[in-house]
Design brief:
Elements: E1 9-18, E2 23-32, H1 36-39, E3 47-48, H2 53-70, H3 76-92, E4 96-102, E5 105-111, H4 113-121, H5 125-128, E6 132-135
Antiparallel strand pairs: 1-2, 3-5, 4-5, 4-6
């Protein structure tokens, strides 16, 4: 399958078949082979991450689905958390990342255990309270 730009998109994850709604299949995850985490081209962005259009589109679809199917309206805070999480996955899936949430999005501070260790040791206790380190 290809996206709007003709790039190959490989689907993975669980497939749900729901015959009552006459829905054949629904995919829970996809891999965009052109995403920086997969294509290996150049440096991944650091600092405040730009939100990829694919993430914005996916969030909009999920918001519409939640409103339609469950009558749930996503709060601005929940929307921002989802955007931050999916943006990190878009750029850094499978890597350890030290990051923090800001009013303008997610900020990447260090990537990889070799870089994260010295970075965190140089921070004060107060600064450490705002930094999250995780395997994305």
């Amino acid at each position: 399958m290809t996206d709007a730009n003709g790039n190959v998109v490989v689907f993975q994850g669980r497939v749900r078949v729901c015959w009552e709604e006459k829905e054949v299949a629904m995919v829970s995850e996809f891999i965009d082979l052109m995403a920086p985490r997969w294509n290996g081209k150049g440096e991944r962005p650091r600092g405040l991450l730009p939100v990829p259009p694919e993430v914005e589109a996916t969030i909009a679809k999920q918001e519409a689905r939640l409103a339609r199917e469950k009558n749930i309206v996503m709060t601005p805070e929940a929307r921002q958390r989802a955007i931050n999480a999916w943006t990190l996955e878009y750029y850094y899936e499978g890597q350890y990342v030290a990051h923090r949430s800001t009013a303008n999005g997610v900020e990447v501070l260090a990537v990889g255990l070799e870089e994260i260790g010295p970075f965190l040791r140089a921070k004060s206790q107060v600064e450490l309270l705002t930094i999250m380190t995780e395997l994305v």
